[in-house]
């Protein structure tokens, strides 16, 4: 039995050490990045924060707001081709470069993806998302999507180790999505005992991806803007958020009222709630690997977006990074045993 004794770190195990800086204000920080993707050869410019492809956060309504901030939305895979047609009708170019079409890896998923992409050739991004990106059949699927959509930017995941990042990039992915188990409504670590602390996964996977000219998304586990800054500091090119964007007007999920306070339902995509909704219940051979929670209703998403972008800007200012691109180079993590003062809860 081999035990890897290297300590693996999550966001809450570290802080970013401040560095001398000549920036006067966070307004001087540029969060926009430009990437040229490995296989699609497309260039993309924007703020690399993505709303997760969950049916509560990857909605068309969220996409419209986030696109105004040059951010991305991985639109969930449960919209029909007709709903895509209706949403995109009359939309300008900006929206096309800020949305991703999500898909699973079944035959039916492939057909639906093909229909949507054919109907809307201006769409750039395809996000192939499965809970476990380690299956050989998944790698084959990525290869098939690459062969069918040569000039589209393909995201594939999720994995947490460098060798699998390399395999997915070689199979045709431009960007690999990293994260197993860190999600706010994920129970994989409890149900299956499988996972990898997210910050270490990001550091190791970024190294592997960048060596081949690929990119990574840190997916899951961010609880506050500081965690997003740590993910970027660790080398993530993009950061994907679920729970932090839940509970807003634009998010999906039913509103519930309790003792005069409003909540919105938020649930994992493999929770019993999601499976009842989309697949007619949890199949007998599998366990639900997601929670269902009630998030206090938070109003329009706009304010949360500002808070997030403000936090990342602030991190950049503290280490003297005039642009997000410089944040990784200027980040030194310190391992800590306390994060914040909790006297007031
Ligand atoms: P969060 O930002 O809420 O911490 O994490 C969002 C991520 O959690 C999603 O992008 C996705 O990768 C993951 N996720 C969403 N639903 C589920 C689920 O039901 N089970 C598991 N294991 N992960 C989930």
TrEMBL record:
List of residues binding K(+): 181, 183
Domain IMP dehydrogenase/GMP reductase, first and last residues per copy: 9-338
Keywords assigned: Metal-binding, NADP, Oxidoreductase, Potassium
Alphabetized CDD domains for the sequence: IMPDH (cd00381)
One GO term (biological process): purine nucleotide metabolic process
Enzyme class: oxidoreductase
SMART domains: IMPDH
Single GO cellular component term: GMP reductase complex
Catalytic site positions: 186
EC code(s) of this entry: 1.7.1.7
Source species, domain of life: Bacteria
InterPro entries in the record: Aldolase_TIM, GMP_reductase, GMPR, IMP_DH/GMP_Rdtase_CS, IMP_DH_GMPRt
Positions annotated to bind NADP(+): 108-131, 216-239
One Gene Ontology molecular-function label: GMP reductase activity
Catalytic activity: IMP + NH4(+) + NADP(+) = GMP + NADPH + 2 H(+)
Homology family: Belongs to the IMPDH/GMPR family. GuaC type 1 subfamily.
Subunit structure: Homotetramer.
NCBIfam families: GMP_reduct_1, PRK05096.1
Role of this protein: Catalyzes the irreversible NADPH-dependent deamination of GMP to IMP. It functions in the conversion of nucleobase, nucleoside and nucleotide derivatives of G to A nucleotides, and in maintaining the intracellular balance of A and G nucleotides.
Identification of the protein by name: GMP reductase
Organism: Geomonas silvestris
Gene symbol of the encoding locus: guaC
């Amino acid at each position: 039995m081999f035990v890897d004794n290297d300590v693996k770190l999550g966001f809450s195990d570290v802080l970013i050490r401040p560095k001398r800086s000549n920036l006067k204000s966070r307004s001087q920080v540029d969060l926009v990045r430009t990437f040229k993707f490995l296989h699609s050869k497309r260039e993309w410019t924007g703020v690399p924060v993505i709303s997760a492809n969950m049916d509560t956060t990857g909605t068309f309504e969220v996409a419209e707001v986030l696109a105004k901030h040059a951010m991305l939305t991985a639109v969930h895979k449960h919209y029909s081709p007709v709903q895509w047609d209706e949403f995109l009708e009359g939309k300008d170019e900006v929206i096309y470069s800020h949305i991703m079409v999500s898909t699973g890896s079944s035959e039916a998923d492939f057909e639906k993806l093909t229909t949507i992409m054919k109907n809307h050739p201006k769409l750039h991004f395809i996000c192939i998302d499965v809970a476990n990106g380690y299956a050989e059949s998944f790698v084959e699927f990525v290869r098939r999507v690459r062969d069918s959509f040569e000039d589209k930017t393909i995201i594939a995941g999720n994995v947490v180790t460098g060798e699998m990042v390399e395999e997915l990039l070689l199979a045709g992915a431009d960007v690999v999505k990293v994260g197993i188990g860190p999600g706010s409504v994920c129970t994989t670590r409890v149900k299956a005992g499988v996972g990898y602390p997210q910050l270490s996964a990001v550091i190791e996977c970024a190294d592997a991806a960048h060596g081949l000219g690929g990119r990574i998304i840190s997916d899951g586990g961010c609880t506050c803007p500081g965690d997003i800054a740590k993910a970027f500091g660790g080398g993530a090119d993009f950061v994907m958020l679920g729970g932090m964007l839940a509970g807003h007007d634009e998010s999906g999920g039913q509103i519930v009222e309790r003792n005069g306070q409003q909540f919105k339902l938020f649930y994992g995509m493999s929770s019993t709630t999601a499976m009842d909704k989309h697949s007619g219940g949890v199949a007998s051979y599998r366990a639900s690997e997601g929670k269902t929670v009630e998030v206090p209703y938070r109003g329009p998403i706009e304010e949360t977006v500002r808070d997030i972008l403000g936090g990342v800007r602030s991190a950049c200012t503290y280490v003297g990074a005039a642009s997000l691109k410089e944040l990784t180079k200027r980040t030194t993590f310190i391992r800590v045993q306390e994060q914040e003062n909790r006297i007031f809860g």
